[in-house]
Design a protein that fits this description.
Elements (H helix, E strand, L loop, with lengths): L5 H7 L5 H6 L17 E5 L2 E11 L2 E9 L9 E3 L6 E3 L2 E7 L3 H4 L3 E7 L4 H5 L15 H20 L1
Antiparallel strand pairs: 1-2, 2-3, 3-6, 4-5, 6-7
Length: 161
């Protein structure tokens, strides 16, 4: 992934106002991120643990999405599957909900998906971050990366629809 700057990330948010985008917490360590191993940058807000964000370059332009955690934790003891990277975790997958872009979002419409709670999908896919037991797949690494990017693009398209 092409490294993104803080102004690029703030300008890329599709489902919050410019004022909200200017106030949210962007990681301070952007220069140290493993950009070559990322399909998207995902982070949790350290001051508001129920908030998360992701930024990616899709179709050649930066796109960022604000997310909220569902807050429900009762199911987290079970093994769950991330809908982006198709990695299984015990207690490491959260339902993250994004308000839709535009008028639909202002009316309260949202889109949700089960995602890795730490939003480190790219690192799990590449084996750079370990997760308990892995499911055996016959896909190559490139195919797993393509699947993750396609799943992310489909989620962002639903947010923007």
């Amino acid at each position: 992934m092409k490294p993104l700057t803080e102004p690029e990330i703030r300008a890329a948010f599709v489902n919050c106002t410019k004022g909200e985008a200017s106030r949210l917490n962007v990681p301070r360590d952007l220069a140290e991120q493993p950009w070559d191993d990322l399909d998207f940058l995902g982070w949790r807000d350290p001051q508001a643990p129920d908030r998360a964000y992701l930024a990616a370059v899709l179709d050649g332009r930066p796109v960022a999405v604000a997310l909220r955690s569902s807050g429900a934790a009762s199911w987290q003891a079970r093994r769950s599957l991330c809908s982006l990277c198709v990695t299984t975790h015990t207690g490491g997958v959260s339902l993250l909900v994004a308000p839709r872009a535009g008028k639909a979002g202002k009316q309260g419409n949202s889109v949700g998906a089960y995602m890795c709670a730490d939003l480190a999908c790219s690192l799990y896919v590449r084996g750079k971050k370990e997760v308990g037991t892995k499911l055996h797949e016959s896909l190559t690494l490139e195919e797993k990366i393509e699947r993750t990017v396609a799943n992310l693009a489909a989620f962002v398209a639903k947010v923007m629809a």
